[in-house]
Amino acid sequence: IPTPLRLSAKLPPLVADVFEIRGVSNQMLGTISGKLVYGSGSMPLSMAADNNVAEGDSSGTGWVGSASLPPGIDGVGTAAIVATDTYGQRDEFVGTLTIDTTPPGTPTITATYTATNGWKVSGTATDADKVRLWVNNKPYGTTTPTATGAFTFTIGTVAATTTVWAMSIDRTGNRTPSEPINIPTALRLSA
After folding, report:
1. Cα–Cα dist 64/48, whole Å
2. pTM of the model
3. Dist CA 78 CA 69 (whole Å)
C-alpha cells in the first residue's frame, strides 16, 4: 500500500501580473492541474511536474504553476492545485495569495546641468518602491525614491546627445516607464 499522496507549497506573499507557485509532492505525480480564483473571475494555471525534483527522498516530484493575469486585478486570490500520483491517489493544495497588478504612476523626469557635477536626472515616481534609470537603452542604476517620490541620478558628462528614461517599480514588480528625454552635449563657452 503506497503512502498517501501529499502536496505542499509555499505561496508568494504578493503577486503581480506574472507569477509562479512552486511546490513538491511526496510521490511521483501522474497528473497535476491548477486554477486561480480571484474576485468574480478565475483562470487555469499552467502546471508542470518534474519527477527529478524531490523533497526528502527520490520518490517525490517537484511542480510549478504559473499564470499571466490581466491588468487591474487586485485583492486576495485562491490557488487550488489538484494532483494524482502514479497509484491513482488524489490530493489538493489550496492557499491564498494577495494579487496586485496595478502599475505605479508614470514617473516624471527632468535633466539639469551644472559645471561642477555635469548632468543630473531628477524626478518623481509615485507608488514606486524603486526607480531604475536607463541611459541610451542600457540600465544605468537603481535608487529608492523618498517618501514623496523624489529621486535623483547624477550621470555626469555625456559625449553626444543621450536619451534617458526612468522606470517606476512597485513592491510586486509592476512597472511603468517615463517618457524619454534627450540630454544634449553640454555647451562649452570660451573667451
Report:
1. 6
2. 0.70
3. 13
